[in-house]
């Protein structure tokens, strides 16, 4: 898409950062994965990643449960540079909209640079984060090394968030320690479904780590059998587990109707102006 900041080089940098980052980071994706584009405020856009401000405004989302979010033309939010007032305007890349006075009746928010600290640097999980491979210790507010098996994790204010463990270890148990992901059949909490090992998921109806299987277009699907493309259309409950059918697949270039949950565009394609299209061909003007 025009102006997209999600380039091959940017994706490689993001992947490299994710490989050494905690699987339960309370601060979200690393700085390298927060893509901004080159389009100025007011330019037509499809996605946030096209805009300098990181925000494409005016796109329309479909109701919950629909097959995909439609690509509708929006405009890039104005971009604010470091020190400028933000809010309705988005901050430039590697900056965050913050206020120094949260007690004021109408606090002023400005763009503050986001820095990535080395081991031992002070951190606040907002403008001062830690480099990939480190985490912000809640007790010391300092960047610390990720823990190995048995290490304490989720200290201080971050206790409810977890974090602080080398990937793919998870922060779990009582007391919170770095542990291997849970194996198939192990008891788990649906509130932390990704504590299970790769390929497993913690389902609300079972509360045990269960292998995920995949279903093609038009095939039967359920809570434990996910659709390869689109969302399972629930029609019944069998033994307490929601069951239904995967949506039909609409080939690229063919007509589509976003409110119709029974049919969806293929992977990577979106329903744009009535036709399934790959993002590379989308351009609002």
Number of strands: 24
Distance between the termini: 12 Å
Overall shape: it is flat
Which ranges are low-confidence, i.e. pLDDT below 50, for 5 or more consecutive residues? 61-69, 157-161
| Helical/strand content category | mainly beta
Order of helices and strands: HEEEEEEEEEEEEEEEEEEEEEEEE
Arithmetic mean pLDDT: 84
> Helix share of residues?
under 10%
User: How would you sum up the major sheet?
Assistant: 3 strands, antiparallel
Proportion of residues in extended strands? 25-35%
Spatial sequence of strands, sheet with the most strands: 1-3-2
User: What integer value in Å does the Rg equal?
Assistant: 22 Å
Number of helices: 1
Provide an overview of this structure.
This protein is mostly beta strands and 285 residues long. The chain is 4% helix and 27% strand. The protein has a domain of 72 residues. A hairpin with a 2-residue loop joins strand 23 and strand 24. About 5% of the residues have low confidence.
Topology (elements, then pairings):
Layout: H1 8-19, E1 44-45, E2 56-57, E3 74-76, E4 79-80, E5 90-91, E6 95-98, E7 110-113, E8 115-117, E9 128-130, E10 134-137, E11 142-145, E12 170-172, E13 177-179, E14 200-202, E15 209-211, E16 213-215, E17 220-222, E18 225-227, E19 233-238, E20 241-245, E21 248-250, E22 263-265, E23 270-272, E24 275-277
Parallel strand pairs: 4-5, 8-9, 16-18, 21-22
Antiparallel strand pairs: 1-3, 2-3, 6-7, 10-11, 12-13, 14-15, 17-20, 19-20, 23-24
């Amino acid at each position: 898409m025009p102006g997209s900041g999600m380039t091959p080089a940017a994706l490689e940098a993001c992947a490299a950062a994710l490989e050494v980052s905690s699987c339960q980071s309370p601060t979200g994706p690393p700085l390298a994965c927060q893509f901004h584009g080159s389009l100025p405020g007011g330019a037509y856009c499809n996605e946030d990643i096209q805009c300098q401000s990181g925000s494409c405004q005016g796109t329309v989302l479909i109701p919950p449960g629909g097959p995909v979010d439609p690509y509708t033309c929006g405009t890039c939010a104005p971009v604010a540079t470091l020190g400028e007032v933000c809010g309705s305007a988005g901050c430039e890349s590697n900056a965050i909209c913050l206020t120094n006075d949260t007690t004021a009746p109408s606090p002023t928010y400005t763009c503050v640079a986001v820095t990535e600290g080395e081991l031992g640097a002070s951190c606040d999980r907002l403008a001062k984060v830690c480099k990939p491979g480190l985490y912000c210790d809640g007790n010391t507010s300092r960047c610390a090394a990720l823990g190995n098996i048995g290490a304490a994790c989720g200290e201080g204010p971050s206790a409810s968030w977890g974090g602080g463990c080398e990937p793919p270890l998870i922060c779990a148990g009582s007391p919170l320690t770095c542990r291997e992901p849970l194996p198939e059949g192990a008891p788990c909490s649906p509130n932390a479904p990704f504590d299970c090992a790769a390929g497993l998921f913690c389902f609300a109806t079972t509360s045990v780590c269960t292998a995920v299987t995949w279903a093609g277009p038009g095939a039967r699907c359920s809570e434990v059998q996910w659709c390869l493309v689109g969302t399972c259309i629930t029609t019944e409950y069998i033994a307490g587990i929601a069951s239904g059918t995967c949506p039909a697949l609409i080939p690229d270039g063919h007509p589509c109707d976003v409110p119709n949950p029974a049919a969806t565009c293929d992977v990577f394609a979106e329903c744009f102006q009535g036709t399934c299209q790959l993002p590379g061909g989308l351009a609002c003007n």
